[in-house]
Amino acid sequence: MFKRLIHYLSLSLLVLIGLTVWGCTALNKHPAEKVVEEMYRAFSRGDMDGYMDTILPQNRRQPNPFGLLNAMSFSIGPVGFDVSKIMAVSIRDLKLKMLKVKDDYALVQAEGYVRYPIIMMEVRFCDQHDVRLQDGRWYVDVYAPERAQRLEKVLGIRQQELANMALNVHRATGRPGDELSTAVSIFGSMMEKTLDLCDKTQIP
């Protein structure tokens, strides 16, 4: 009886410690991180109203404010996949990191896995989001000029990396013109390269 009581109290203490740590982590999270987290959660559950609420109001008045959908879309050789056309996509194991914050601006990095049920694949992704304080609330700026500058640099690097991967497969297979065969053989790796939109020079 005594041993059982000790075991119960030990388990209770572990649970209490776990809840305390989780609570402190949640309380210490910056509002800019929270809004990025909510953006991904809304996206993952298909809640477009919730998603739009996290986006900078000015962005909502532009033709296509779904910056995250565009980031999750990709095209590899003859194979293209537009997530905005098929919403059955979810995010798993999301991890956020504050890269910089100053006054009314923050840069938050998001990493995790994106699942594409229609093709039965799960691949890693990395993205960096510009977040701005406006009227007392933090919003994600999907059309931030800082983002455009980062992507110009990152996409140039990724394009070269993808070209090198395709060239290596061509050499290995001995079928230099078979683009479809090349894309299929390294599809997962190329998807992860395409979805890695993080500028590593921004990481402190």
List the topology elements.
Blueprint: H1 2-28, H2 31-44, H3 48-53, H4 57-60, H5 67-72, E1 74-76, E2 79-81, E3 90-102, E4 105-116, E5 121-134, E6 137-140, H6 145-173, H7 179-185, H8 187-194
Antiparallel strand pairs: 1-2, 3-4, 4-5, 5-6
Helix pairs in contact: 6-7
Structural summary, described in words:
The protein contains 8 helices and 6 strands, in the order αααααββββββααα. By secondary structure, it is of the alpha+beta class. It has a 4-stranded antiparallel beta sheet with strand order 3-4-5-6. Strands 1-2 form a two-stranded antiparallel sheet. A hairpin with a 2-residue loop joins strand 1 and strand 2. The longest helix has 29 residues. The radius of gyration is 21 Å and the shape is globular. The N terminus is likely disordered.
Helical element count? 8
Task: Indicate the low-confidence ranges by residue numbers.
Answer: 1-26, 74-87
In CATH, what is the class?
Alpha Beta
What is the 3D form? globular
Domain module count: 1
Strand order of the largest sheet: 3-4-5-6
Reported for the largest beta sheet, the result is: 4 strands, antiparallel
Tell me the CATH topology. Nuclear Transport Factor 2, Chain: A
Query: Quick check: average pLDDT?
Result: 74
Question: Which CATH-level-2 architecture?
Answer: Roll
- The total of beta strands comes to 6
Task: Give the SSE string.
Answer: HHHHHEEEEEEHHH
Helix content: 40-55%
| CATH H-level homologous superfamily name | NTF2-like, domain 1
Helix/strand class: alpha+beta
